[in-house]
Structures are given as C-alpha cells and as structure tokens.
Amino acid sequence: MKKLFSILLVIVTIIGCEKDDLEQYSSGLIGEWSWLISCGGVVGCVRPSANNTGSLLFTIDSVLYLYRNDTLYSSWIFHTYNRITNNGLDTIKILTYGSSIQEYSINHDILQLFNRDWRFSSEYKRIEQEHFP
Q: Judging by DSSP bridges, how do beta strands 31-40 and 54-58 pair with one another?
C-alpha cells in the first residue's frame, strides 16, 4: 500500500509540475506576434517590406505557427524553460521548437528571440486581439 501511494504521489507531482511550468514560463508568449526586424549572420539586418512579412502565433496548446506573407509556412510544438547562467545567479528564458533553441525575453509588447549558435536575433511586436484562434 505504501508503494502504491508513493507511486501515485510521484505521478501527481510530475503532472502538476508540467502544468505549472507551462503557465509560469510560456503564458506571456501566448498570442500573435508581428515580425519587426531580424539581425545577424552575413545578411545584417532585415525588416518587413510589402512583399516580405512574417508573424508568429503561440497557442495555449503549445503549438507555434510561423506565417510568411500571411500564409502558414510551418508549425512546431514548442516548450519553454528557465536556464541558470554560468554564474549561478541569473536565469535565461529558453524557447525550443523543432531543432531550434533560442533565448527569449518579453519587454512590454516586444518579443526578442536570440540564437547564440548563429548569433542571430529577431524582434516581434504583440498583435492585440480579444480572442486567440
């Protein structure tokens, strides 16, 4: 009986933690974001134009949709977590989807994504909507 209780306790704890992690770390991402600028690599900085636009849609079901020129380009399951920095004092928010791992931050209504491996960053502005699809 003790063994069964211990197993149930572990299962309930794991399920509870996963839900808390999603709400705690990714709730700020949920919604639609319009592409503002991307910088890095050989290209330098690129901004949207009349025939080159983009947006991201993060859903509460942990799905990330990427749109280019108002057409669905790709979608992935996304996850977020906090990583402790080397000094052990700070944390960095991490976003993973597909094979991509990026740091992210949200300041007011601006989402900043940074890929350390590629030294590439992008910024998106939150699109205000009453209801998310």
A: antiparallel
* Cβ–Cβ under 8 Å, residues 92 and 85: yes
pLDDT in tens, 77-126: 999 999 988 887 888 999 999 999 999 999 999 999 999 888 899 999 99
Q: Read off the DSSP letter of residue 131.
A: S
pTM over 0.85: no
Architecture of the structural domain at 2-127: Beta Barrel (2.40)
Burial string for 52-77 (b: 16+ CB within 10 Å, else e) reads: eebbbbbbeebebbbbeeeeeeeeee
Residue 22 and residue 42: Cα distance in Å, rounded? 35
Token reading at 61: 């079901």
| Domain locations along the chain | 2-127
| Residues β-bridged to residue 91 | 84
Beta strands in the chain (DSSP E): 31-40, 44-46, 54-58, 63-68, 71-84, 91-97, 100-107, 110-115, 120-127
